[in-house]
Amino acid sequence: MNRQPILVTGPARSGKSSWAERLAHESGRRVVYLATAREDPNDPEWQARIAAHRRRRPVYWQTLCEPVELAAAIRSAGEVCLLVDSLGSWVANLLALDDVAWSEQVDALLAVLAQPLADPLILVAEECGWGVIPPYPSGRLFRDRLGELIQRIGPFCAAVWLVTGGYALDLRRLGVPLA
């Protein structure tokens, strides 16, 4: 596996997490799954989704939860294949930040990604905004921040996978980068 991050992106329920898990398994390294979602014991449906993700992963994979300090968590991961799932949850966790604080978080993450990595890093991100513009400000803010984040991360990645319709496409190999 390359020493640059790998980005796996796609719409909801597209298989992007499963594809990222496959890539992590194929790395041959010990895998740490870094979950960015906040657990909510008052939301049984959300807890069921988290449990389904856990059941799908091998029991010997370690799971860490870090909903906010993503850059620091990546820096301190150690000698493992780190699978971050997902950037969308991370963005959602930080929606209350003003533009300056948000930019600082993004800059910290990009600074980590700009450094040569000693170990494999796989980032999962949701694609949104392929349809209706959200009718409320927080939805538009989420869509805009996540879309811009994915665009800024892509150039740092050895591969950018789009998972949709049951297929994984390597956009770095098949696509043309924007200026």
Give structural notes:
The chain is α/β, with parallel strands linked by helices and 179 residues long. It contains 7 helices and 7 strands; from the N terminus they run βαβαβαβααβαββα. The chain has helices at residues 16-26, 44-56, 70-75, 87-93, 99-114, 137-153, 171-174, and strands at 6-10, 31-35, 62-65, 81-85, 121-126, 159-164, 167-170. Strands 3-2-4-5-1-6-7 form a 7-stranded mixed β-sheet, sandwiched between helices. 30% of the residues are buried.
Instruction: Report the helical percentage.
Output: 40-55%
State the CATH topology: Rossmann fold
Total number of helical segments? 7
Residue share in β-strands: 15-25%
Family: Belongs to the CobU/CobP family.
EC number: 2.7.1.156, 2.7.7.62
Function: Catalyzes ATP-dependent phosphorylation of adenosylcobinamide and addition of GMP to adenosylcobinamide phosphate.
Pathway: Cofactor biosynthesis; adenosylcobalamin biosynthesis; adenosylcobalamin from cob(II)yrinate a,c-diamide: step 6/7; Cofactor biosynthesis; adenosylcobalamin biosynthesis; adenosylcobalamin from cob(II)yrinate a,c-diamide: step 5/7
